[in-house]
Structure prediction request, 401 residues.
Amino acid sequence: MTPKSSSHLRDLQVFADLGDADLAAVMQLTRQRSFVSGEVVFEQGDRGDTMLFLVAGRLRVELEDGKGNRTDVGAVVAGQVVGEMAALDPAPRAAHVIAASDATGYELSVDALRQLRREAPAAAAAITSAVIGDVTARLRTINERIEQELNPTATARGPGVKAGAGRGPSGGYRPHADGALGPGSASEPRTWWAKLFGG
Amino acid sequence: MATIDLRKLASLKDYTNAELRVLAAVAPAREFKVGQMLCVEGTSGHSCFLLATGSAQVKRTFEEGERVLATLTGGQIVGQMALVDRSPRSASVVAAEVTLALELTRDVFENLLKAHSPLALRVQEQIAIAGIRQLRMATQRFSSLLLGQTAKAAAPPPPRSVLQTMQAALEEWDMSMEDLDQVHVSVPRGQVGAQESRSRRA
Prediction:
């Protein structure tokens, strides 16, 4: 293990405006994690209560369906954060996260974040604010996707979502074989997931 | 402006005395009579409300008319998106009985946050958690609707009214999954509702 370096954390946008003392508090309360390529960072379904600030390397996000099929739904690169929702509200991990290269990050737990609120409120506020921004953006993405369903373009969609369209084949809702969402616009089933899960 | 002893409210029992003192100082208690509006759909919002007593309904206008999306009671925060986002109110909030609510404006919230007030940190955390739960619900619900994962046979498309309701719910971070389940989805043009209920559970 290399010694902790706060300059790494300083590279993350979320910490850009923090003073040295606040950043030092973050360093104190995080745990450095190193992963070799291929190593599991988070396992889908495991109870998560930590977030990871990635300072080096690259992670892959995979979604597993009920049959065990995995779909690559996004990537996390150095400077980004992953698993952040669990550090505010612990819950089973929504996807697998796997090191796509050798990678290093700093892990912050829900308890550590609580302690940060007391000891370095500016840092806690910055993290929470970043999470809110991220969640807002993702909710907007879902909202836009629903909008697509409600107002499909004439060319892209079948009878689709008209109220009471019945149980007949509806064109727009069949899942892809790989488990990604069926074609809202047929070309980009994965983009939608990528926006939700990072990358 | 109404006066009230915040420490006596069960809905605020999680707040420390110090936080309640700050709350009392910065968030004036306002009384709303039945039918009075706390938030008006489509207008720009600049504050959120912490309901102290009474109850309020979240309503939204749809093509086929107005629909009640949720009923909120003491201890719940409503309209908090206005503190972090400048988009217009996504729904109206109407007092269903005489309701006392503390109004926290965005300016006050931002100043408290800058001053690292524990109260502001707590509200900020609540906003984040509400959003996170909403997002998890939405991701799960919407994807299973589209994938029809629980249906043995080909799943029917999600009815328009379900999508609209969900869309409205996404914009109201106060709404839980349970709230969403309780939403009455009206079925236009004489369609049968059972299929809709099935896909809503899917």
User: Anything to note?
Assistant: Chain A has a mean pLDDT of 76. The first strand of chain A starts at residue 31 and ends at 35.
